[in-house]
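HOLO CASE FILE
Compound: iron/sulfur cluster
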Amino acid sequence: MSVEDSLKPSVILVSPSDIEENVKKIEEEIKNHEQLDLDSQKKIQEEIDKIWKSLGWFKIAESQGIWKSKTCRHGTQGSCEAWNISDPSKLGIPEDAISVAQDGTKRVITAKFYQLCISCPLYEPRRNQ
Ligand code: SF4
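Model generated. Tokens follow.
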């Protein structure tokens, strides 16, 4: 496994809306499942409630990513000029969030994939805003 492979979970981790959708679907399925007794339904619902609580953390991370992508001095017209991503797919970065310069440099369009900014160590606030 390469270093990039091991980084993958931390890059694609935050997608609260997808997780929320999945949890909602599970909740609906449980409600519609006639074979589950009430006790079982209650236990499963308690587990789902724990997941909802965890999602709060993801939402905070997501909002910080959005804020950093908009205030970082390395962000130019919605793209990050600091990172050159050699193989975006290995990091779980969607193709439509990559722009390729004439010299072959691959930049991340943080306006589309602000998750890159969440834990980025290169963040620096813009001085004159
Ligand atoms: S926080 Fe990091 S990834 Fe985001 S624009 Fe700044 S340097 Fe690029």
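CASE NOTES: Residues 68-69, 72, 74-75, 80, 82-83, 110, 116-117, 120, 122-123 surround iron/sulfur cluster (CB under 6 Å). The beta strands are 75-76, 79-80, 98-100, 106-108.
CLOSED: yes
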